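Technical annex B. To support the medicinal chemistry partners, we prepared a structural model of the target in complex with pyrazine-2-carboxylic acid, based solely on the information shown next.
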Amino acid sequence: MSERPRYPRGGQALLVVDVQNDFCPGGALAVSSGDEIVPILNRYIKMFERGHLPIYLSRDWHPRETRHFREFGGRWPAHCVQESVGAAFHPALAIPADAQVISKGTSPDDEGYSAFDGRDATGTSLADSLVRYGARTLYVAGLATEYCVRASVLDAIAHGLRVVLLVDAIRPLDPDDGLRAIDEMRLAGARVATLDEVGRAIDDPSMLTEARSAP
Ligand code: VGL
């Protein structure tokens, strides 16, 4: 399985949320410019690979019939149906061979907004996997800001993790809701950062800790 170290430097890990075809332009529940973040995500992924740090990719992985879909009483058009092209990761996303895929929303009663509701291929929850890796700081990016990114960030904080929201690699379904969600995540304790800052933090994790405790 993974060749990444059991206790990564600084306890840092990356979570890329739902960068799937259905959330990108042309998809069933498209985030406008959702695909714009892919080259930025690839740079983050490279940074974490170079640092030998664990990388998680969550995906919506819904059954054809789920109460998450409008057709069955839910809110959304059908999207990210298991094994469909729409559920596949964006083709330009540079997924490392040992990245951990976390599937969520996999049963008819499970809406699966948060990656913390998901499990890897062996049935291990994201929270358990992070504990196993000794991760204490989770960097989060992906789609969509006000739904699955927000839910994952708030759950990570509730699990006692430090969260860094990668604001240059998230996009909302609705711009106003996206801004409100960023405020909410910050108020809950998430730090925000962009590529430059993270590049330095990976080499010197104390940088983020210090910045967080500054007034
Ligand atoms: C999402 C709406 C419905 C997301 C998933 O990935 O943010 N949003 N299902």
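Notes passed to the chemistry partners:
The chain is about 30% helix and 15% strand.
The two ends are 42 Å apart (CA to CA).
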